């Protein structure tokens, strides 16, 4: 087997003393070599960066699938009505709201509701105080001509919709609507002018 020295001598004999590249060609060859050497660290750095980024993405995806990271949840997905609290409020209203109570008495128990005027005739208006309990943030009332917010109740965006109808400074009558569960029908409870309470399923 030929030694390194013998190989070098053979190569030298083949090409002689003349270099393969001369003048500017040799300078360009040197510059090209330098440029290639400079590119290698940059290329390696980009490669490492790509691998690192992929590793982070994979880790985040894995943590997300495991439930370690909580996804941002919209209000609509997060909102749920506490039906036990709704039923407690229903009982409170039944026991405390009475025909003949004054506005001051109602304020002490329930606060002052949204004041709404229902036009009965061209010369008279009925004052109604409306209360919305357990409502979804960001939603607005959808009162119909009877000041009922049925739409939000059906969509489970509202727990209780209560209206108090006034005759001057006295409660004339009242009604409120609610659902016992998200899937159940709307129940309307009426506190009548004779102070009796009736219920019906809408």
Notes on the structure:
With 202 residues, the protein is α+β, with helices and mostly antiparallel strands. It has two domains: 63 residues, no CATH class; 125 residues, no CATH class. The chain is built from six helices and six strands, in the order H-H-H-H-H-E-E-H-E-E-E-E. It has a six-stranded antiparallel β-sheet with strand order 1-2-3-4-5-6. Strand 3 and strand 4 form a beta hairpin. The chain is elongated, with a radius of gyration of 41 Å.
Q: Low-confidence segments, ≥5 residues, pLDDT <50?
A: 26-30, 71-76
| Computed Rg | 41 Å
Helix and strand content put the structural class at alpha+beta
Largest sheet: 6 strands, antiparallel
Order of helices and strands: HHHHHEEHEEEE
Helical segment count: 6
Shape: elongated
Main sheet strand line-up: 1-2-3-4-5-6
Taking all residues together, what is the mean pLDDT? 78
- Helical amount: 40-55%
Beta fraction = 15-25%
Number of strands: 6
Number of domains: 2
* Terminal CA distance: 104 Å
